[in-house]
Amino acid sequence: MAVDDLTAPLGRERNRRRRTFKLPVPQIVAGALAAFLGLFVLWAIVADDPYGGEPMAVVSANLRLPAKTSDISPPQPGAPAGDNHHDGQVMSPASQPALGAPPNTTTVTIIDGKTGAKQEVVVPAPAGGPAPAKAPPVDPKFIEMTPHGAIPRIAADGTRPADAFARPVQPLPGKPDAPRIALIVEGLGVSANATSDAIAKLPGQVTLGFVPYGAQVAPLAAQARAVGHEILLQVPMEPFDYPDNDPGPQTLLTSLTPAQNIDRLHWVMSQFQGYVGLANSMGARFTASETSFAPILSETAKRGLIFVDDGSNPRSVAGQIAGANNLPFARVDVIIDAVPTPSEIDRALGRLEMAARERSVAVGVASALPVSIEQIAKWTKSAASRGLLLVPITAAIKGKQSTASE
What we know:
The protein is of the alpha/beta class and about 400 residues long. It contains ten helices and 15 strands.
């Protein structure tokens, strides 16, 4: 029998069922995750990202800034050659300013590597002071054109670029067996001011290392050659904490195949010309991997270059691989500015002197810090008076090889 309000106990309300609405939280979360996954898969399929999310640096290119000037002889008809090659184009400086061009400007001829079409672009000349010295153009016999641009090769007569671009050595008078020291200042090419400062303050016997980045790296490297420096190309290689510590675009990686790394190496090699060899930029993980490193050093030997290990990685296998490939090789003995203070740099230079007197030849390296450049410049002025011969890196390598063979 149904209970109505008259028969219900006083003071008590009749229990009534109330309908409640609950949000289907698990279903909503699952749907959101499915939608996000679908969007990610669609982006991965549609997006044009050949580097798969690898960290990249984008450098602005502006033809109104001082343009790269070629360090290579003018291209021959039908076979353009130059070290400033990008997307099928080669830049080379015009021999004279264009007729009617404004004062204090330079005319750069851009040659399309696919069609041969030429375009002249007027750019500002370097501000103030005399025009910088010009290095002799790189002979086309030392150039091989690739999809990335011009890279070094051994000439048909067997001459290697390392020998062609090496600087002569003048022995100390009366001391033909004077201990030899090679100094390398690295990290140049990105900052035009820092690079110009190093070129101006350091004697020609100091070897300069350029990284393959920077809008003016080619003309700066050519300027260094013009005043007597041997130059090295620093190749970005994978450190242990990559990508948190990233050497830059086109870094050689242990996760890539040998063919992929060599393709990256060719890109790096194409950024400028005239270098005697390669040096590692970072690369503690890469230089410790024989599987990854051996093809790179084999390619370096094939191109007629030398290789310099910066001495920062005790686990580097560069020495044993170089020996197997008949590759001229040097390992840095002393890092000059591990502690970048004047007093510590002077102490490191003292250790380098001791190493040279004990082994007949020694190699030191420093970064392009202002304090390092200042202290090295001071040290070089008195090196000869202490019976030390400052030599470019190719001469130091020859000295190390001759000492090892004795």
